[in-house]
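Box 3.1. Reading complex inputs
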Amino acid sequence: MKRIILPLIAIFFVGIVYAQQEDKPSKTQFMIRGYGSAGFQSLNDEGEKESSFNSGTFAPIILFKFSDKFMFETELEFAYENGELETALEYANVMYSLNDYMTIRAGKFLLPFGTFMERLHPSWINKLSSVPLGFGHDGIVPSSGVGVELRGAFDVYGSKFNYALYSTNGPKLNDGSMEPDEAGILHFDNYEDNNKNKSLGGRLGYLPFTDSSVELGFSFLNSKVGNSDSDYENVGAKLIAYDFTFIKKINPLGGIIDIRAQYNQSIVDDANYYEPDGLGGSEEYTFNNKSDSFYAQLSYKPTTSSSNFIKNLEFVGRYSELNTPEGAEWETNQNQTAFGINYWLSWRSAIKVNYQITDGTGGHGGGLIDKKQFTIQWAFGI
Amino acid sequence: MGIWYIIKKLKIMKTILTVIAIGLIGIVAISCSPERAALVEGKSGVQLWGETCMRCHSTPSPADFNDTDWSTIEMHMRVRANLTADESKKIFDFIKSAN
């Protein structure tokens, strides 16, 4: 109950402060933005069918700008799931602009590991109502971290580069002592470090063309992931990602072509884990703890059409894959194909109609995966 | 058999990495020139607004926020979207002039 009331009280008082602001601009600026969604979902999971309207999510973003160099930003997330209001802190960080090429941030921030989670995951930006395989819950891609980051962007003779270098508490290895089914999985949202080692990560982005139509990116994250004073304290993890973006208005095609792709790989050092044998004892086992995932997305928006209805449409297709280690309790090989037609009501509000097919083997349930999902989502930015 | 397989795989990897490295060096060499730098420097705020915002989302309507709000959004977006200082200034100067 406290989890519900405290955020509501905070928003109430923030609202009062906001209402008391005078029209005359002050040096300290305050703003609430954010995004939300609502919709309908029909799922066919290996013949078991269910459908439901859902209340979706609401994610207020609160920005405090103290000067031209100094800002605090935070994003909360509210979602009604399984009969309860779920709350989450997506990020909360303070940032200071050191100069035109360097900004330092501290706190909880979205990790620049590829581009999807940092730039594209909000529902009013994401062109489909789901995230690709490998991201989100049970994913192998880190979304946020608690630590400190230095980032910036600069021109070099007509090309642009952007960079981010950060140190965070880092991922935490699930050693299976509490959840044997998840032995070897990495957890990324660690408010408290489980060891003395801090992770080191970063991303370098390169935009070769003057119109910023293409971006190539490389990301990495290295860390020790095991608990201190345990058998796993020397277990490390290396994560890398490559990302690609092409977005351009192409006149012969009458609209905007948008292509995105990202490949992610996670390699965790070998370790021995223990599986209950059902007789009160356990069996030791190990596996090559290497996972990868990939997605590619193509969308087309016929912006030059003479019809107002057609120019607001957008057609999207996405393929994604997730492969987790052979021999792990959470071994899975999945692939997913998703299609969508979006209708843009404004630059920040879209109705998305999506159909998604997920095939494969493994996962928490084991066996075959055969899911077909139809969704309608109304997403909006504020 | 195993050793030959590994050597063959390493050779393929080496070839792929060499091709990627040469390709990237070529792209960097072609894309970096004083003429192109002048082209980027000469871009207007409205041009950058059209090209840059759509890297993530649709181009925003200048009328949706006032100048004070756009100043706050400017700093948020500059950091989130990795805009250069010049891009950021030109884009938000244009937006504030057009709202």
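In summary: The interface with chain A takes residues 24, 27-28, 30-37, 39-40, 43, 51-52, 54-61, 64, 67-69, 71-73, 75-76, 78-87 of chain B (CB under 8 Å).
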